[in-house]
């Protein structure tokens, strides 16, 4: 039982990881002149989510906040053993609304990234479609957020469902690239093999488990 | 003496040359017994101490030190002086000797006869000849102990050493790594700082040598034998660092630096240290660092995701502000508080104008933290932000924005700690605040209304802020909301707010609200409700319901109770006579609200009289009239079991809580009514002269006999000091009724009433023979299989058993054993099993602490320990089809045990509980699962060995046909995910596969449990998970 004599190691403990495969998911090719600056920012802000680095600046430090919806009201049918409750939009929305934003201590619902009107489910046809809206058009976290939503749904829905997660049309600079990446089964599977990426995704989902 | 010295030489020889450690103790014993002196010991050691072999010298010193450790109390000053001189000299000797020398010195410093000046010389030679950090752990601790003892006993001498002492200490501590020694070192440093030792030019050195551990990062080894926690170290170090303002110039930059850390605990520690030092510092120490500190604090509160960091940051800001506010201003110095508040306001104020954005909240919290720190600060902050907040509110039109602004305002209106004399800082804004609140109350947004109700409550707590006219206006608004607002959350907030205001301003409520509500309750449109559509009818009933609730909520002051209870009683009367159109639910609700008033009203004589002299006689009278009316064409609702059950708590709360003297009177009136038919105290007394409520009569006698529950309310909840008249006759009649009556509600109530009285009866022969008699009668009925009153006898048995069990009466065993034997009864077995749930739970209306019953603590544990073996045995010997009764009884009992007991008892019971999970009876499954789930939250090791069976059986139950069983089993599986990772990892794949099935369950409630559980299991062993 020894004590760290001098805790100088507490400085900026950056996590080093395979930047290349990681960036595929985190850093979107930003069509902007100050590309390099943006990219460095992105790396730091990502670390700040998992490590809460003190001096880092967030991309969008003061976002708009929206009201949370209340808990779903229980009906008499919910208690009745014999009535089947179909999986509906609200149920899907309840699954994803409390996912934490990777940058802010706020839920995707509070940031209006997900809305119930942008959730479509067809219990008969076994399809689920979710559109999400990044807070700013150049949000570097868009793919990561999409991935978190997708993972949450994969873990929470019966296998019969085909799950489609994509960006609300016209709300992100690299919409197509992100959508393509999210739709590619193999790329999603590969992403979840990357332990760094899985860690960030899990953390978006873990706090969600804590709050509700 | 000669024999002594020979013995001594032998002992010394055996210790030094013979290497027998036990001889040291023998020597000490001999010395204490006076067989030889310390001088003789030294002489006998002489040769060894002068030996040329360091090991031999060490052995010699070791013997001497060991003896001194036990005998230091018996030494003379002269002896101590000589010994000290010897030891100090030995410090220069070979290093193998040093540990023993230190041990001996440590013993000598404990002597009360330490010669003057010796403390200084000990320390000098210690600091000069010993390099502390090259010693072993135990020796270092020895040095710290010497320092501590000398500081306690020879403080003035050490202070004479001046800064040399501090320097010596700094040198000895520099580089210490052991947490036990660090704790000692921190304590010494704290004493140096607080004891007024001269730090001289070594202030910075002392700071350096301690602050290098900040922030402390220490995790004790598993099964830590020393019991030192990180928290202890943190607090000890904090006491040092914040001990003196002279450290300020070093500490504050360090804090600013460490706040930049990535580690959350380091941030929190830094913030808490800042809070602590702000209470010691003055503004001159802080002044230079305020901008830096503010920048760090702001950043932490603005950006953090952690509530701990946020609240620590806000506390630190408050402490800083309070510290600067304390400073006395010179005429020529600038006002630091103003300067600092300018900084805060500059960075935060503008965020308050953006009510949609995230930073409005942290900004408001920061400003609130500064404003609650001191009166001056609150003045300054209020003056700066109130006008703009008010203006913002009035200019914004969106409800969400207004609501945010109002919530921010609410934070500032919360009554602070400012003293009474201080004029409220909000006085200037009183008018605007009131008008905002009243306008928000008229808005059509639930959130806005709820917030404004909270602001109104907060305003009312500061007397000067609401004028009489404002209160009247507020009451009008509240009344309107009660009558019109349909949102349940708003209604709840309205009722709460009305309750708070009515406690302070009863008159306005009496004159304005109560009459309006009364009018609404009895309004014509409601009376003629038959013609209305169902939805209209429904909303009318809802209005009435809200009126009743509000009436109860405002009735805390006796003057309001005086006005509100007659309204409620009138509802009962009209519904009895059939002139009003009150539904059964409304009648019950009236009773609930009467009970609420009895619970919350102030216990004054006035309230007591209202309840005992008016309300209870009226309730009894109405119930009796209803019972007498018989099965006429218009049956009164007051004969309904549900209504009577709702009346009981009104009566019992009153008797238990309000004016015990009057309660005694009520009880004796009730007894003479029920036994002798004495109705003189009942209002509108027009009954036949001869009635005997408790006697069995022909025909519809249940209408009367069930009134026994009201008798129970009167006599079973009295304080134990109040006596019930005619007790023996009463008990006799109750027993008779409970054993012979065939109306379930009547005989159960009689049994409860009987049990309630038995529970409070003084112990003694009278009680014993009473119980014996009852038990005999019960046994006779139960043993006779053809008896028609077995259920009645069983009910009485159950309640009496409970009454005795609660008070640890020795005869309770006889009764509970009887219950156990009934578990295998073919007719009553299942009733008996469920009876154990009643035995272990708190009954709402009788035999609980609220009813002043004799309830011993831990009666459940006691019952369990005495009887669990009987249950297990009964289970093992029972026929297969009767086993489920035992399992059900067991799971009922275990369910009500405190968690600590569950955990310790679990190993013995686990096989049985696992058995219960595979028992086909769904009630048993459910009860067992609900008993297992809380235990699983903090798994005992016994469970871990049974994981295979546990996981397997709970997973099977996730496909049970009963929804509740599926839900309960999924909750257990969720709880299982908190087990130690290495234990449950082998099950992960299997559980995830099995949980895919309930994800597609028929019922949404099951699916949502499955989702939660499955996601937790996914996180298990995954990076970023747990």
Span of the ends, CA to CA of chain B: 73 Å
For the sheet with most strands of chain A, the description reads: 3 strands, mixed
- Apparent shape of chain A: globular
Provide the number of structural domains of chain A: 1
The computed structural class of chain A is mainly alpha
Subunit structure (chain B): Component of the CIA complex.
Protein name (chain B): MMS19 nucleotide excision repair protein
Family (chain B): Belongs to the MET18/MMS19 family.
Organism (chain B): Oncorhynchus kisutch
Structure characterization notes:
The complex is a heterodimer of chains A (212) and B (1026). By secondary structure, chain A is mainly alpha-helical. Helix content of chain A is 41%, strand content 8%. Chain A contains eight helices and three strands; from the N terminus they run H-H-H-H-E-E-H-E-H-H-H. Chain A has helices spanning 19-26, 35-51, 76-79, 89-96, 142-156, 175-183, 185-193, 195-211; strands at 119-122, 127-132, 162-167. The termini of chain A are far apart. Residues 1-20, 27-56 and 208-212 of chain A have low confidence and may be disordered. Chain B is mostly helical and 1026 residues long. The two termini of chain B are 73 Å apart. At the A-B interface, helix 2, helix 4, helix 5 and helix 8 of A face helix 15, helix 17 and helix 52 of B.
Lay out the secondary structure.
The complex is a heterodimer of chains A (212) and B (1026).
Chain A: H1 19-26, H2 35-51, H3 76-79, H4 89-96, E1 119-122, E2 127-132, H5 142-156, E3 162-167, H6 175-183, H7 185-193, H8 195-211
Parallel strand pairs in A: 2-3
Antiparallel strand pairs in A: 1-2
Helix pairs in contact in A: 5-6, 5-8
Chain B: H1 2-16, H2 22-33, H3 38-49, H4 54-71, H5 77-90, H6 98-109, H7 118-129, H8 137-153, H9 155-160, H10 163-173, H11 179-194, H12 203-211, H13 230-241, H14 248-258, H15 264-278, H16 283-286, H17 290-303, H18 307-326, H19 336-348, H20 360-371, H21 375-395, H22 399-413, H23 430-441, H24 446-461, H25 468-484, H26 488-504, H27 506-521, H28 524-527, H29 534-554, H30 558-577, H31 584-600, H32 605-629, H33 641-657, H34 660-676, H35 702-705, H36 708-715, H37 727-740, H38 744-760, H39 765-783, H40 790-806, H41 812-822, H42 829-840, H43 859-877, H44 883-895, H45 899-917, H46 922-936, H47 941-945, H48 947-957, H49 963-976, H50 981-984, H51 988-995, H52 1004-1019
